[in-house]
Amino acid sequence: MTDERTKLLGFMIALVALALVVAVFGERLLTSASGPENELITWLKKKEQPGEPFDGALVGQRVSYQRLSVVLGPDGQSATVSGTLDFTGRKEGVTVSSLGFERVKFAKKDGEWRAVDGPAPRLAAVVRALERRRRALEAGDIPDAEGLDREEAERYRRLEARRFTVEAWFIRSEKEGVEVSEDFRLQGNLPDRPVDEKGSRRLSLSEDARGEFSFPRGLL
């Protein structure tokens, strides 16, 4: 009977010790024990919570990572997670909706995995390019390019008190390229009349070796 009580007491002490370890080290210990692949996927899945920041003012509202695959670096201190990202959120009043390919690079520092360029680097790069274009159109700074609608570009340039705002970007991101549908509003004054237009426009973006995006057929 004494032996049984001793064993029971030892078991209870071990259970309490385990609970203390989990309380102190928490999820880091558990995810480490499950392997780096699960740890990285768990890291991304946490970004699915509403209100999570993705890049500066870009904030997610409905986010889902799917079909994730992990490739670990040979040193075990770096990794790349590829998959699809279904994202709906906002950036400074603009609705951003995106579906498509995403690749996230990670590095391990001080025992923790960190996303080198954020949790959605491709989406962030696309949004940055779209924002640069929006500012250029509002300023009337529209360079010539093959495929540019030159008549429309000249109309933008001639507008006084020009204001170009975007209501929404709907992004389809594939490995081969990115297509965007943009809902916009153009306001200003031409010499003969005021302008206040709402419309939608289709845009094509291409990616360079640095992972940045541009508009090979022009801004319009």
Word description of this protein:
The protein is 32% helix and 45% strand. It is α+β, with helices and mostly antiparallel strands. It folds into 2 domains: 1-33; 36-220, Roll (Nuclear Transport Factor 2, Chain: A), CATH 3.10.450. Strand 3 (78-91) and strand 4 form a beta hairpin. Helix 1 (2-33) crosses helix 2. The protein is elongated and about 70 Å long. It starts with a helix and ends in a 6-residue tail after the last strand. 20% of the residues are buried.
Summarize the structure.
This protein is α+β, with helices and mostly antiparallel strands and 220 residues long.
User: Which word captures the global form?
Assistant: elongated
Rg, Cα atoms, Å: 25 Å
Largest beta-sheet details = 9 strands, mixed
The top level CATH class name of the largest domain: Alpha Beta
SS class: alpha+beta
Q: Helical percent range?
A: 25-40%
CATH fold descriptor of the largest domain: Nuclear Transport Factor 2, Chain: A
SSE topology string: HHEEEEEHHEEEE
In whole angstroms, the N-to-C terminal distance is 86 Å
Secondary structure tally, helices: 4
Can you tell me the residue ranges where pLDDT is under 50 for at least 5 consecutive residues? Answer: 14-33
Report mean pLDDT, rounded to a whole number.
87
| SS elements, strand count | 9
Strand content: 35-45%
Count of all domains: 2
CATH level-two architecture of the largest domain = Roll
